[in-house]
Amino acid sequence: MRMFLDILLVITSLLLVLLVLLHRAKGGGLSSLFGGGVQSSLSGSTVVEKNLDRITVFTGTIWLIAILGIGLQIKFSH
């Protein structure tokens, strides 16, 4: 179970980084400093933006569950 949670954590972490980078910058800040001010072809549709938001929230929830699971396993392992 611990190995599964570790693998799930790594996969969801990488996926979250990718999904956050796909989001369109909504107002200057650090994202525009690194080229986020350029509009990508994926962020042209509001349907795509809503689906990207849903996938990001779902992935973040799975990531949080994996973190909590690993923490509980560490706490109750002895």
TrEMBL record:
<keyword id="KW-0653">Protein transport</keyword>
<dbReference type="GO" id="GO:0043952">
    <property type="term" value="P:protein transport by the Sec complex"/>
</dbReference>
<keyword id="KW-0811">Translocation</keyword>
<keyword id="KW-0813">Transport</keyword>
<dbReference type="InterPro" id="IPR004692">
    <property type="entry name" value="SecG"/>
</dbReference>
<keyword id="KW-1133">Transmembrane helix</keyword>
<protein>
    <recommendedName>
        <fullName>Protein-export membrane protein SecG</fullName>
    </recommendedName>
</protein>
<keyword id="KW-0472">Membrane</keyword>
<dbReference type="GO" id="GO:0009306">
    <property type="term" value="P:protein secretion"/>
</dbReference>
<keyword id="KW-1003">Cell membrane</keyword>
<keyword id="KW-0812">Transmembrane</keyword>
<dbReference type="GO" id="GO:0065002">
    <property type="term" value="P:intracellular protein transmembrane transport"/>
</dbReference>
<dbReference type="GO" id="GO:0005886">
    <property type="term" value="C:plasma membrane"/>
</dbReference>
<dbReference type="GO" id="GO:0015450">
    <property type="term" value="F:protein-transporting ATPase activity"/>
</dbReference>
<feature type="transmembrane region" description="Helical">
    <location>
        <begin position="55"/>
        <end position="74"/>
    </location>
</feature>
<dbReference type="Pfam" id="PF03840">
    <property type="entry name" value="SecG"/>
</dbReference>
<comment type="function">
    <text>Involved in protein export. Participates in an early event of protein translocation.</text>
</comment>
<comment type="similarity">
    <text>Belongs to the SecG family.</text>
</comment>
